[in-house]
Amino acid sequence: ALGALVTELEGARGDLARFAQGVHPQALTEQGLHAALSELADQTALPVALDVPSKRFPRPQEAAAYFVCSEGLANVAKYAEASSVAVSIASVNGHAVVEIADDGRGGADPAKGSGLRGLVDRVEALDGRLLVESPPGKGTRIRVEIPCE
Known about the structure:
The protein is of the alpha+beta class and about 150 residues long. It is built from 5 helices and 5 strands.
């Protein structure tokens, strides 16, 4: 019985580690946005052009930027009917500036989707702002500005 319990606990520990990886990737913690977003781009079903510095940002800003990119790429793959997407991150005037732009069908509306609404909440919790430009037929651009000071 003890052996079965140990096996079950080891399985649960493995499940928890995989869950935690999905929630906050190890590459983000250990190596930063560039490494974490490179892994995410490799898992995305369409071509992703990355322009991400190797510079580290404060951890809360890095986490917010990562999840914005993760949700943005998921939305592109699910809804945009895009052939490509570009992700850029830069440090501008004390802010982490994240942009995700696709060449898809456009029409995204943060007021109508829980995913984008959740991103707005996450970014605003750090005194940042999220803007969405998504004219029908002309793709979508998400821009996030998060203070880092």
